[in-house]
Structures are given as structure tokens and as C-alpha cells.
Specification:
The protein is an alpha/beta fold. Helices cover about 40% and strands about 15% of the residues.
């Protein structure tokens, strides 16, 4: 199983060093392209030792998921299997009636975070420099697109609500929205797992959603829509991302192979794996095939 230039070992765990990890541990050393640092594949019984030495230990699925998020965001200028979202969003773009906040819901792996990043590109892509308005005709070659693909665009801020549930993290966002974008049409805040925010955090965010700055957009992603206050939902344009049909999955993965984006697929059995997926998610389709092929 190839991810970048390194292999995924489904029976091992990946130990990722922190600044405090001075002692090396035994295992298979790799330059992991997803986490962009020297890491080590270790046996499961070595987890306690690795964590005591300051390593973060992750499952192989997390490595695949991280890489695939980068892969899908970098090379996707279209949303797979989300025709309703694309049509609605394009109509809003064409009529100049963009919502100031979007709420993306759906099962794990359906593509909420990836969709949020693609929307960020649609909002800020400038093409060859002559493109003045947002559109889903994403070039993937202009400076904003490349920076968003690389995860270093100053005006697209990603927040993991699972690790910043309190009101202090939201206040930082509220304080920063008053400033104009550095080098973009819109400053975009992507808040993943937004349902994890506390009630106080939601209340603090509500005022900004009621009277948002003109050049700021919020994109919320969640798997648990019922945990989000109705006062927040009512101020967002909601998109329920649907499961992707196996045929569309197969065509999408073939396209990845045809573009030679990654050496993920070599054999026809991927079609079989796509057709038997329980959740029909793009990320899971490739991850399942990767783990079976290893």
C-alpha cells in the first residue's frame, strides 16, 4: 500500500514525535508525507513506551484519512456525488446571493471537511487573474488555490471544535473577524465537529452570525446536527451531504488513477470494494482498498 513514498502497515501503529521526543524508539522509520515529519511504525505493545517518551500514536486509518484529505482537496475542483449542493451553490454564486454561513452535515467520511475546503477555493480562486467573482470553476493553479491546497492560506482558518470547545476559542475568532482578509476575497472560517462547542461558545458565536462582516464566511461541519442549537442552524445555509453511489466512487477513483495523482490503484478489484461498501464514502472506499491491498 503506497501513500506518497511510504507504506501503510495495517497491523502496526504510527508513532509521531513531538518537540519533547528526544529518545528514538525502535520500529520502521519513515518520512511520513501526510504528517510531514519523521515517524516510526511500532508494534501495539510499544504504545505505552512511545507515549511516555512524548510520541503521539495513531491508527493506520488516521494516516490514510489525513493523506486522502490532502489528496482530495488538492486535486478536486468538483464535488463528487453532491449534485444538489453544487446546483444550489452555483445558483447562489451566479445571483450574488451567497450565504454568510454554511452548515455541512453527513456521515463520517462523506467529505464534509474536503467540501469545505473546495468551497473555500470556489470563494477565493482568481484563475489567471481576470476572475473577479467566486465560482465553482476552480483552476487549482492560482496563488489562493495552491495555498489552500497546501494548508497555508492565511485567510482560510480551520478550527477543530473537538479540541476547542470553550468560549475562549470562539472569542478569538470573533475578535479576528473584524479584520479584512490579507490576500483574498473572503476570510473563511472552517469549524469542524461544530456540535462539540459548549452552549456558551454557541451563544458567543451567535451575535457574529446575526451581523457578519461582508467579507467573512463561516463553514460548519458536523456529524450530529441534533446537537447544534436551532438558533445557529437557522442562520446557516444547510447542506446534507449524501452518500456517494458505488458507480460514482469507481469513476472518481479511476480519474485519480488516470491523472496519476497517486499510486493508489493498479487492479480492477477496487470496483468490487466500492460496490460492497456499507457507507459509500469516498474516503472509506480508498482506505478500505488500501488496507486490503497491503
Amino acid at each position: 500500500t503506497i501513500v506518497g513514498e511510504d507504506k501503510i502497515y495495517p497491523n502496526l501503529l504510527l508513532a509521531i514525535p513531538s518537540d519533547n521526543s528526544q529518545t528514538k524508539i525502535e520500529g520502521i522509520n519513515v518520512k511520513d508525507p501526510s504528517f510531514k515529519m519523521d515517524s516510526t511504525w511500532i508494534e501495539k505493545h510499544e504504545v505505552s513506551k512511545a507515549e511516555s517518551l512524548g510520541y503521539m500514536v495513531v491508527e493506520p486509518e488516521a494516516v490514510i484519512a489525513t493523506h486522502l484529505n490532502q489528496l482530495l482537496t488538492k486535486y478536486s475542483s468538483e464535488l463528487i456525488g453532491q449534485d444538489t449542493l453544487v446546483k444550489t451553490f452555483n445558483n447562489a454564486l451566479n445571483k450574488g446571493r451567497l450565504a454568510h454561513a454554511f452548515l455541512l452535515t453527513g456521515i463520517r467520511g462523506v467529505g464534509k471537511t474536503t467540501t469545505a475546503r473546495i468551497i473555500s477555493k470556489a470563494l477565493n480562486c482568481i484563475g489567471d487573474g481576470s476572475k473577479e467573482d467566486p465560482s465553482f470553476e476552480i483552476c487549482n493553479n492560482c496563488s489562493p488555490c495552491k495555498s489552500i491546497n497546501n494548508g497555508n492560506f492565511l485567510d482560510v482558518i480551520e478550527v477543530d471544535a473537538a479540541s476547542r470547545t470553550g468560549v475562549d476559542g470562539i472569542r478569538e475568532i470573533i475578535d479576528s473577524v473584524i479584520y479584512s482578509p490579507n490576500n483574498a476575497r473572503y476570510k473563511v472560517y472552517i469549524i469542524d465537529e461544530v456540535h462539540m462547542l459548549s452552549n456558551a461558545a454557541f451563544n458567543a458565536l451567535l451575535k457574529t452570525l446575526e451581523e457578519p462582516p461582508q467579507n467573512v464566511k463561516f463553514i460548519f461541519a458536523t456529524t450530529e446536527i441534533k446537537k447544534i442549537p436551532i438558533t445557529v442552524i437557522s442562520r446557516c445555509q444547510r447542506y446534507d451531504l449524501s452518500r456517494v453511489k458505488s458507480g460514482e466512487l469507481f469513476e472518481f477513483i479511476k480519474k485519480i488513477k488516470d491523472k496519476d495523482i497517486a499510486k493508489i490503484l493498479e487492479l480492477p478489484p477496487i470496483k468490487i470494494h466500492c460496490s460492497v461498501l456499507a457507507e459509500d464514502s469516498i474516503k472509506q472506499a480508498i482506505a478500505d482498498y488500501e488496507s486490503k491491498k497491503a
